[in-house]
């Protein structure tokens, strides 16, 4: 999955670019997870880590060049594509930030498709598997690929981690901290004792979630509506519907 961020303080331009990127997904073999941001500040405060970033140069408060410089210091592997209606700023953006390229407003479909298709190939070569680290009950470090985790369960003051290969028991963690830590990867708290990988949910059954490994985990009634919305949002962003 390619994670794409669109940051533009003009709602019309932001939504137009979103539509074009979504069209590009429909003819691409890669699936997209797209997030929209209406300011550089909102983008920098977000926990979303894009592989490809469409960034408007001219915005209120922090402009795109400032935001791009900050992001580049944090992550060298993000592919930045600037969007602007001012040719004069392009050279500065390209030289200072080493962006991948740029698009002139109003963005044209053919130009967007070309540069995004090329950027996807660049990003695919640099995307790394995301890992998280936990402390086991034997006080050893557990390094787990995020996509291998089905769910976390709080039981007897310990956290059970169920993955595609095996189960682990970790300590020194609270289930609420697990939720905060794993939320950027598509996890959510379905019940006071469970944090679930929403990408691995096969079906919602009354007060239970059926996972792709065949297991069932609890779904609290007060969380059901939110969980349904989160899953639908992931489906819209990640799959053809």
Describe this entry's structure for a reader:
The protein has a seven-stranded antiparallel β-sheet with strand order 7-6-10-9-8-12-11. A five-stranded parallel β-sheet has the order 2-1-3-4-5, sandwiched between helices. It contains seven helices and 15 strands. The chain starts with a strand and ends with a helix. The protein has 241 residues and is of the alpha/beta class. The relative contact order is 0.10. It folds into two domains: 2-126, 3-Layer(aba) Sandwich (Rossmann fold); 131-238, OB fold (Dihydrolipoamide Acetyltransferase, E2P), CATH 2.40.50.1020. The mean pLDDT is 86. 35% of the residues lie in helices and 32% in strands. It is elongated.
Topology:
Elements lengths: L1 E6 L3 H16 L5 E6 L2 H6 L6 E5 L7 H11 L4 E6 L5 H8 L3 E4 L4 H18 L4 E6 L4 E5 L3 E7 L2 E6 L3 E5 L3 H8 L4 E5 L2 E4 L3 E5 L2 E4 L4 E3 L2 H18 L3
Helix pairs in contact: 3-4
> Helical percent range?
25-40%
| CATH-defined architecture of the largest domain | 3-Layer(aba) Sandwich
Give me the strand/helix succession.
EHEHEHEHEHEEEEEHEEEEEH
Q: Which percent band covers the strand fraction?
A: 25-35%
Strand elements, count: 15
In this structure, how is the largest beta sheet organized? 7 strands, antiparallel
For CATH, the homologous superfamily of the largest domain is named as Response regulator
């Amino acid at each position: 999955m390619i994670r794409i961020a669109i940051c533009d303080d003009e709602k019309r331009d932001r939504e137009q670019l979103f539509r074009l990127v979504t069209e590009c997904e429909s003819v691409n073999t890669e699936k997209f997870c797209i997030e929209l941001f209406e300011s550089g500040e909102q983008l920098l405060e977000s926990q979303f880590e894009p592989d490809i970033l469409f960034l408007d140069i001219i915005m209120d408060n922090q402009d795109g060049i400032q935001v791009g410089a900050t992001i580049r210091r944090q992550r060298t592997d993000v592919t930045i594509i600037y969007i602007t209606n001012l040719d004069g700023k392009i050279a500065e953006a390209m030289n200072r930030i080493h962006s991948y390229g740029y698009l002139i407003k109003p963005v044209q479909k053919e130009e967007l498709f070309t540069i995004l298709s090329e950027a996807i190939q660049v990003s695919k070569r640099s995307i790394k598997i995301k890992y998280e680290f936990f402390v086991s009950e034997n006080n050893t470090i557990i390094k787990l690929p995020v996509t291998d985790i089905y769910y976390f369960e709080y039981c007897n003051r310990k956290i059970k981690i169920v993955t595609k290969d095996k189960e682990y028991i970790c300590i020194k963690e609270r289930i609420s901290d697990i939720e905060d830590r794993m939320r950027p990867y598509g996890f959510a708290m379905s019940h006071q004792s469970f944090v679930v990988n929403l990408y691995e949910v096969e079906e919602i059954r009354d007060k239970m979630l059926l996972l792709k490994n065949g297991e069932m985990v609890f779904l609290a009634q007060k969380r059901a509506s939110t969980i349904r919305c989160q899953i639908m949002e992931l489906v819209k962003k990640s799959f053809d519907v």
